[in-house]
Amino acid sequence: MSQTPDLEFPIVEHFYTLQGEGSHAGLPAYFVRLGGCDIGCPWCDTKKSWKAERHPRASIAQIVGWAAEAGALHVVVTGGEPAQYELTALTRAFREAGMATHLETSGAYPITGTWDWVCVSPKTYRGPLPDSLAKADELKVVVEDADSLRWAEQNALGVRPGCRLYLQPEWNQRHTQLAAAIDHAKRFPRWRVSIQSHKFIDIP
């Protein structure tokens, strides 16, 4: 797990917007995208985040200050792959500032920190750790082909009772994979379909 000198993190971008996906779609939240990812999904829409060294670092005080200045009540830490960093101090600072903490991770690394919500989106290119999968409040599987549905069911076996299950069509293949996701959810109604609404309404 990566360490950050003086508790600084590589920041790809940060912004206040609406959560566009999954259980909290429509919720105002401050997004902090950390740099660095070795999963390598070919359809990734934030490939610029893969190389941590390409991005400026910011301290915990700076990061929390951005969200506080925006007036955010919820913060989403995403990437890249944020769980490759030790996040305990960062989540503590957010919570002390009165913000709820949400994590978006592939589950490929151990999850550190204290989170109000954990979304695990497992990738076939590097599967999730059983312990990380078991911490998920939300399992969100990207549907890119027929194998994605089998992958979704395989990972659903590793989450705890009450975890919300989502199938999310890969954006560039949404016209074909949306129908597959809907059909699967209708046949197995414990699943819901997640749409990337932020892309439809053109917000970050």
Main attributes?
204 residues, alpha/beta, TIM Barrel, 9-stranded mixed sheet, 6 helices, 25% strand
Give an account of the 3D structure.
The mean pLDDT is 94. The protein has a single domain (5-200), classed as TIM Barrel (Alpha-Beta Barrel), CATH 3.20.20. It is globular, with a radius of gyration of 16 Å. With 204 residues, the chain is of the alpha/beta class. It is built from 6 helices and 9 strands, in the order E-E-E-H-E-H-E-E-H-E-H-E-H-E-H. Helix content is 26%, strand content 25%. Helix 5 links the parallel strand 8 (164-169) and strand 9. It has a 9-stranded mixed β-sheet with strand order 3-1-2-4-5-6-7-8-9.
Write the layout of secondary structure elements.
Layout: E1 8-18, E2 28-34, E3 57-59, H1 60-70, E4 74-78, H2 88-96, E5 100-105, E6 117-120, H3 130-134, E7 138-143, H4 146-156, E8 164-169, H5 174-187, E9 191-193, H6 197-200
Parallel strand pairs: 2-4, 4-5, 5-6, 6-7, 7-8, 8-9
Antiparallel strand pairs: 1-2, 1-3
